[in-house]
Design brief:
By secondary structure, the chain is an all-alpha fold. 76% of the residues lie in helices and 0% in strands. It has 20 helices and no strands. α1 packs parallel to α15, α3 runs parallel beside α13 and α6 runs antiparallel to α15. The longest helix is centred in the last third of the chain and has 34 residues. The termini are far apart. It is found in: Cell membrane. Belongs to the sodium:solute symporter (SSF) (TC 2.A.21) family. It holds the Pfam family SSF. GO terms for molecular function: symporter activity.
């Protein structure tokens, strides 16, 4: 019965997405696919971006964090707010002034062709790997709680789900995503609130009682100022949060592509600041849910799972909280996963066609690349399933630290200096910086027993920046 409930929920959900896709793809052109004809209402973009930014990883991983690091993840979220302000008022004006389709065109105009291609290729690698991690969540959960029981191989699961994303994004691209992400964010919030209400009901608490109990719980600690070696130290988390947003949003074609569909710079800035402010309360709700679920486990004498990623699924996907929670959990996890994966597939297609092939007007090429990116996406999901052994949200930030660092260094050099790079050295420097970071992290663990956390991103970007500075053209100021 549970399996049938989930399957019917998914079928209804996909039908709604395909209907939205059909409604938004009339008279679609390449400009529609890449830039949404620059006609997107800013408030729809802002609301939809919440779901796209949260992703299925947050839906699954964040509640389970409370049993290992409390609510200290909110320190990073507070840094996110300043990061979004920086993107809105530093980077967006540049992108709108240059009327960019992809943000990496800036690197070509400021630094040179090899810098431009390097930035585009690093984005392709970063986004493909990071998005595969995120989308792996929904594939893994469906496989574990439904499809294993009926003998469906994981490879088929991944292939079918990615094919469905390809189907509703293939024509309208970014214009379709503005509307589907709005729908998916609404579904995510509905699922989150319904699950919280159901858990409070099982604990026999009202809202006021739940807030009081959560606030008094030891797992609700937010700030860590007293341990500089801890990965959860406030300043490490806060500053890393700022730069994570600058890199993962401001220097990420996927996240910026939707913002660049707004009619004016002013509207894009309102969109960016609005959904940036939403991150703290949204993640606070997820963490509060984690505390409530842990209390429910203690009340029922159920041992907590060894992996934090399994806390919410342990109750929500197994029917422990009732059939309606299974429905809403399925909707929530699919909504958050699809809203990040569909935009990633669109952005990857855009970057490859516009930046790598430099053929933005070739519609036939766009269709072929879009299908090919879907196939590569499936391969990355299968690779991650084979090799991953860490917490999912940490896995994403580890990937970000190694692959987005060179992008941070390139953009910082272009924005903060007036020097010209030695363009032929840029690809080698961009590869050398992550390799050196890996070596430094290994040495630090062996010699000082210190493990780099999210600050590895800053180190990576700094090394790239330093390499560009040392090898710059000397005869040009």
């Amino acid at each position: 019965m549970k399996n049938m409930t989930i399957v019917l929920t998914l079928l209804g959900y996909f039908a709604a997405l395909l209907l939205l896709s059909r409604m938004t793809t009339r008279h679609a052109t390449n400009d529609t696919f890449y830039r949404g004809n620059r006609q997107s209402p800013w408030y729809l973009v802002a609301f939809g971006m919440i779901g796209a930014s949260v992703s299925g990883v947050t839906f699954v991983s964040v509640p389970g964090m409370v049993n290992t690091i409390g609510m200290t993840y909110l320190q990073t979220c507070l840094g996110f707010v300043l990061g979004y302000v920086a993107v809105a008022f530093v980077l967006l004006p540049i992108y709108y002034r240059l009327n960019l389709t992809t943000i990496y065109t800036y690197l070509q105009q400021r630094l040179g062709t090899r810098s431009y291609k390097t930035g585009a290729w690093f984005f392709l690698l970063s986004k493909m790997s990071g998005s595969a991690v995120k989308f792996y969540v929904v594939c893994m959960l469906l496989q574990r709680f439904v499809l294993d029981d009926i003998g469906v191989p994981f490879m088929v699961t991944a292939l079918v789900l990615v094919s469905l994303i390809w189907l509703y994004t293939r024509r309208g691209g970014i214009k379709t995503l503005v509307w589907t992400d709005t729908f998916q964010t609404f579904c995510m919030f509905a699922a989150l609130i319904f699950i919280i209400v159901q858990v409070m009901s099982m604990l026999e608490m009202n809202v006021v009682e739940a807030v009081k109990v959560i606030a008094q719980d030891d797992r609700s600690r937010i700030f860590v100022f007293d341990d500089w070696l801890s990965k959860q130290n406030f300043w490490k988390q806060f500053v890393s949060g700022i730069f994570i947003v600058i890199v993962m949003t401001g220097l990420d074609q996927d996240m910026m592509q939707k913002n660049l569909t707004c009619k004016t710079l002013r509207e894009a800035q309102k969109d960016m600041c609005t959904y940036g402010l939403a991150f703290v309360p949204v993640n606070l709700l997820f963490l509060a849910l984690g505390v409530l679920l842990s209390m429910l486990a203690a009340q029922q004498g159920v041992p907590l799972p060894s992996a934090g990623d399994e806390l919410l699924p342990m109750f929500a996907a197994t029917g422990e909280l009732g059939a309606m929670v299974v429905v809403f959990f399925t909707i929530g996890i699919v909504a958050t996963s699809f809203s990040s994966a569909d935009s990633a597939l669109t952005a990857l297609t855009t970057t490859y066609c516009v930046d790598i092939c430099q053929k933005p007007a070739d519609e036939r090429l766009r269709h072929r690349v879009h299908a090919a990116m879907g196939a590569v996406f499936v391969l990355f999901i299968l690779m991650f399933r084979a090799f991953n052994s860490t917490n999912l949200i940490d896995a994403i930030y580890i990937l970000v630290s190694y692959t987005y660092g060179p992008l941070l260094g390139l953009f910082a050099f272009g924005l903060l200096t007036k020097y010209q790079v030695n363009d032929r050295w840029v690809p080698y420097l961009a590869i050398a910086a992550p390799v050196l970071c890996y070596v430094l992290d290994a040495v630090a663990q062996h010699v000082w027993h210190y493990h780099f956390g999210y600050e590895l991103l800053l180190l990576n970007g700094t090394l790239t920046f330093a390499g560009l500075l040392v090898t710059r053209k000397r005869n040009v100021p």
